Fold this protein.
Amino acid sequence: MTDATPAPNTAAPDPAGTASAGTDPADSAATTGLAPVGPADPRPLRAGVIGLGWAGQQHLAAYAADPSVELVALSAMEQHLLDRFGSEHDVPGLYQDWQQMLAEARLDVVSIATPTFLHAPMATAALEAGVHVLTEKPMAQTGDAAAKMVEAARRTGRVLDVSFNHRRRGDVTALKDIVDAGVLGSIYYAKTGWIRRQGIPGLGTWFTKAESSGGGAMMDIGIHMLDMTLHLMGEPEVTAASASTHAEFGPKGRGGSGFGVSAVEEGVPFEVEDLATAFLRLEGGETVLLEASWAQWIPHDLCYVTLYGDEGGATIEWGAPTGPKITVWTEVAGTPAELHPAPGEDRGHAGAIADFLAAVRSGEHAAHDGSLALRRARVIDACYASAREGREVPVAGVERADGAERADGL
């Protein structure tokens, strides 16, 4: 078995020239040349996107389809992507240098869809330039890096949000309505996971290097399942984690595109886990069992969340060949019943962006400072620390029962 637990990042890569000087919130509007956006301001929001991979393309498409947004700038290292999407969407500002874009494009909002190690420096620079920020998940490589992003959002008075698109799936929103209606009663246990048949992203790229990604399957897809599950349960605080990690496929060059000799990629760097499991303790005594894997010997991908309540239970699952499915077990008129509610509307990335823009327009920016995503990052930190140390680890920042925060930060 290969040790797959990433070591703590003490010095994350930082692009040369990253803006880091503090900015007074009162000066932020002058930095962009735009008046602050609020509910009474009808003008289109000037938007930009940094990173034009798959996720960045989802952000770009959502902005382009929104009549309340003017897509004015794109930034990517790949000139052919800038040319393609700039032409398709008639975007006037195309930049290979994201810092130049922030300095020149007079943005109101920006999406960051770049490798994880760039999220913190890019988001902080944008916030300090007076721009509201939506970044892809994970928020950052570590909870400490995420905390600095939240501090920058609070200091500048700008919105900082993270795109957890899966919580906006139609089946998740339908189950959330059922939970909120009290059908399941009090939820005391949940099981959740995302297991891929063959889905290691970018073998040998930044995805599989610990310094640039911060972690493997848990950081990449486990965080989606964590977010969905806690969202469904009503956002209880996670207090401790006991976790284990494995790297069984990636170090052999397998699991990226298929199994078998022909699929093996020799000599590629693989420094993270391709499987992680975690047992999480919650503040009210509830527990969650979480698993995330990029590659396994299974017939097809599977994602699921199962909730156990004192008045009912429910499962959502999706994966080829069945598609999304919701099942609820409860009682109807005193008789045990199995129900199959229809999913709601899939909002995905478009929903995440719509919610972000609504937060910007609302003027209630302090309520959208990235704190929820920071809590997710702290849980992932605790999972990796537990796997390294072979013990249960408290989640940083969670208060003790007496109301005092742990002095050691754990």
User: Anything to note?
Assistant: The longest strand covers residues 187-195. Residues 170-346+381-394 form a domain with the Dihydrodipicolinate Reductase; domain 2 fold (CATH 3.30.360.10). The two ends are 29 Å apart (CA to CA). The mean pLDDT is 87.
